[in-house]
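A favour, since you know our structure tokens better than I do. What I am after is a single protein written out in full by you. Could you add the entry underneath, on a fresh line?


***
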Amino acid sequence: MVFKIIGTKKRCRGLAEEFKRIKQIALPKCLRLDALKSYHDSLASGGHIGREKVYNSLMEKYWWNNMHQNVIDYVKSCDRCQRAKQNCNPNRPPLTKMPQVGRFDRWHIDVLGPLTKSPDGYEYVLLVVDAFSRWCEGFPMKTQNAKENSRKSLQWSCN
């Protein structure tokens, strides 16, 4: 059953103390996800619009408890939006270049794999790259656990 709320006074977003009468349908739980999909995902509405636009559009016709939080959660869970959205992290420190003094001063180490297992049982490669010259060396490893990683790193640094 869908109820219609008529004549309620709702505070309009963006208008400080003004109120206006609006007609809203109290949407039952079973229809809320469909409404969110329709307003957020559909190309007719612009497709994958932001949470405030979705909320404002929904608010013109519908009402349910915690609607604003439901819209925020739905937009946050949208895979397509998260992939396309630029990262707006204001607390991120600015990137700076690290000084490079010379060869063999700074190394980058990473593990590549799992790869196709060799006849000897090696499945991973410990990659070591010199930051200055970009000289790269690889060392085969059977596992990528910390013990073997440290053993290979020590073996590499002592050679």
